[in-house]
Amino acid sequence: MIDRPRIDVATMQRAMSTAEAVLTLNPPPNQDLEGYRLFRVSGGDVTWFDMPADGNAYAVIGSHPRCDVRFAAGDDVSVRHLVATCCTLPEGNIGLRLMDLQTGIPFFVDDDIPRRSIVVSGPLLVRVGKHVIGGLPVGDRTSNHAVRISSCGMTDEEGPRPVAAATDGGELVDKVQPVIALPITSGATTSHRFGREISHITSVRPVAHIEDLAPRARDGYVRITLQSYDRSAAVELAEQILEQGVLLGRADNCLDRGLRAVLSTHISRTHLLLLREGSDIFALDLCSTNGTRQGGQRVRRVNIPAEGAAITLGPELTMIWHPRT
């Protein structure tokens, strides 16, 4: 059994207080930034990554030297462990999505429920192994509303939910906000107080495991081909699976079905995440060692058009995304 050290809530709350103080003393250089500040706290040491919502920003979290938010190396975390990205809530406000990259170590909030993929409105504080990380909303468009993901979009449902609101005297009281419906396949939405605000966390489908992928194509699938100088392999993926996220790389938890035979050691163990957000499909480089390129330029995030695209992984492997009809 994997050792999952229990960090007490008081320690996590101190980490949040430290991160809030650092944000006050070191605000984002761009005063107009709207999004999230991701942070890692180790003792009194705080590192952070500012992630705007109005661009292609996302963060890879792990122990690899190229990760955006780095853990100290150890057997309690993976080299590329989590991906965080901003998402837009129904009313136009900003939330945070956190996804485990099919590691053997889930993350936890202020309870003992293992999490693999969540959407949060408001501040976030989680523990991963012996590490504490979190996110602080930045800007006026951040929200305390609970959300669900459906095709990576959000939908509302009638009904009240109490959230914290300040009175004229500065005291926190409860007020009513709308509840967001949950898909049957999701866990319940829960409320958590990490600091002065109440956050709502919704569990959603985790990054797809290789065994979840359908063996044959039909309507609603996309086709990709991996091609090296002497080998190639093709696979078809359900668009619904892409909403959860699909990993490409040499690790056992990545998509295989013949693709791994094409991969060389120039490809990172978890190299690329394919993710659908609404009607868009993205390829996210997971801070790979040898990079991902399009048109000869190194890129982090590629929006794959309906007419298809060619992307280079490492120095020589081409991923051909066939046109969608």
UniProtKB/TrEMBL annotation:
Domain FHA, chain residue ranges per copy: 246-299
InterPro entries: FHA_dom (IPR000253), SMAD_FHA_dom_sf (IPR008984)
Pfam families, per the entry: FHA
Entries under SUPFAM superfamilies matching the protein: SMAD/FHA domain
Coiled-coil ranges (or none): none
Highest taxon of source: Bacteria
Identification of the protein by name: FHA domain-containing protein
